[in-house]
Amino acid sequence: MLLSTPIAAMRQPVSDGATRPRSWRLEQLDRLERAIAERRDAVLKALASDLGKPPVEAYFELVAVQQEIQLVRSRLRRWMAPRAVGLPVFLQPGRAEVIREPLGCVLVIGPWNYPFLLSLQPLVSALAAGNTVVLKPSEHAPATSALIADLIDAAFPTTTVQVVQGDGPVAQALLQERFDHIFFTGGERVGRLVMEAAARHLTPVTLELGGKSPAVVLRDADLEVSARRLVWGKCLNAGQTCIAPDYLLVDEAVETPLIERLGERISQCFGDDPLASADLGCLVNQAQFERLHALLEGARSRGQVLFGGQSDASRRRIAPTLIQVDNLDDPLMHEELFGPLLPVLRVNDLNEAIERINQRPKPLALYLFSKQRDAQQQILERTSSGGVCFNDVVMHVSVPDLPFGGVGNSGMGNYHGEAGFRTFSHERSVLRRPFRLDVPFRYPPYAGKLPLVRRLLG
């Protein structure tokens, strides 16, 4: 049986109002926090097993979930409070407000690249909003999936949270159920399938997808700092990060010195033999390795490899590699790379960079390295993306109060902090009226009342 507790039974405590009190929500956060604390070392081992994550990178996932719990706990009273809304004169006396109430039973489908963080972070938001949750971790990170199942089973009754493990057909079967919201993190192709399945029940969805996130480097940028940050962001989790810089658009005046600094920085981080480095993760499975390796070998055959290019199929590792690309038709520019290959495209100026960005679907993230405030403003006014970060990469996702999400092909909806609480809440409009002062002009017969209506309503 797919679900040990039916969806209807999980929805019942929400319908009965049992999950509405702040005390219930805080108790769920406490349960989750305790269960994580008891398994911290196990989390690091699972992430090393699935993705070869260095302990420091794996620890980022733990810390981010803990920070989300702490933020929600400190802000929950304020987020839950009714929000008063002003009334027009003709509705006074009265009181209007917006209350945020739970949606019901929601489905969270997690990805494989940050399998712990990106499964549990939306779970925190869903529980804080008073929902019950079915959680489907990715089968491509089996050790982490099993750990999450053990953690949730120990922390919650199945009427509150239950984990369903399995592959694509299991996910498809889950999507046949009627949930009150579906939160999916993954690729665009599967995102379309999720949205199609949700449409059958008119279930709202949040889609955290991806895309080719560009990084623009202008001639006034600090090249040393830019190279350091670009290499870190590109090589984090072996490039398997949805907001990693996917390709560079480099001002022709600094292309050569930037490439030199990028190469130097790669060597400083991972040594002369990056494939032997304990600080570089591995690709999640053989299929991902073979896809990227084919792109790498194609670039090598065309003489495009500028730096790196080593690979080891037995360990599913590819060294950080810089690749010269001349146009957007190059095979490396067709889809999100999701690996340690970094195409470098030369541009004349910011205008050309913006033109190239706008020739592609809207990305999940966009990066600009420049000291010019005018250049930053042009990026904001002439492009569209899920998020923007100036003179750094990836770090905007670490700001607790910044909503995180995509736009267009990179996703819909957002979460983190209050944005996550709102995603999993229904904002219900409430108007309270007394029985006194029931003015008669709104009731038929209407004869002779139009002049009064005009004076009152304008």
Brief overview:
The protein is of the alpha/beta class and 458 residues long. Strands 10-13-14-9-8-15-16 form a 7-stranded mixed β-sheet, sandwiched between helices.
Distance between the termini: 62 Å
- Give the low-pLDDT segments: none
Total individual domains: 2
The largest pleated sheet is described as:
7 strands, mixed
Strand arrangement in the largest pleated sheet: 10-13-14-9-8-15-16
Number of strands: 18
Work out the helicity level: 40-55%
**What oligomerization state is this entry in?**
single chain
Give a written overview of the molecule.
With 458 residues, the protein is of the alpha/beta class. It has two domains: 7-209 and 407-430, Aldehyde Dehydrogenase, Chain A, domain 1, CATH 3.40.605.10; 214-398, Aldehyde Dehydrogenase, Chain A, domain 2 (3-Layer(aba) Sandwich), CATH 3.40.309. Helices cover 41% and strands 17% of the residues. It is built from 15 helices and 18 strands. The chain has helices spanning 7-15, 22-37, 40-51, 55-80, 117-128, 142-155, 168-174, 188-200, 223-235, 255-270, 286-301, 350-358, 373-382, 417-423, 450-457, and strands at 83-85, 95-102, 105-109, 132-136, 161-163, 181-185, 205-208, 214-217, 247-251, 305-307, 311-312, 317-318, 321-325, 341-347, 365-369, 387-390, 411-412, 425-432. The strands form four sheets. The chain has a seven-stranded mixed sheet, with helices on both faces. Helix 3 (40-51) runs antiparallel to helix 6 and helix 5 crosses helix 14. The longest helix has 26 residues, at 55-80. The protein starts with 6 loop residues before the first helix and ends with a helix.
